[in-house]
Amino acid sequence: MITPTKGVRPERSLLYLGGQVLADLGEPTTVSAAWEALARRREREGQEATITFDWFVLALDLLCALGAIRLRDGLLVKVAKR
């Protein structure tokens, strides 16, 4: 689930999705805008694996747990590297 497994394709793993979200998170954005950006990216890259909103939220949870993003004033913000 977090990493690819026999049952989870690499492009559906939470780490992969989190990386895609981080790549698109140049400035603070809403959760729904990040969801739409991820959908556009996956379509542009021809990734056919279906991603539900629930799975997307799990990827956000993982990024929050890793300290890579945070929610500030209702917007997702990438945490600066220290």
Automatic annotation (TrEMBL):
Classification via Pfam families: MC6
InterPro entries cross-referenced by the UniProt entry: ABC-3C_MC6
Domain of life: Bacteria
Record protein name field: Uncharacterized protein
Source organism of this protein record: Lentzea atacamensis
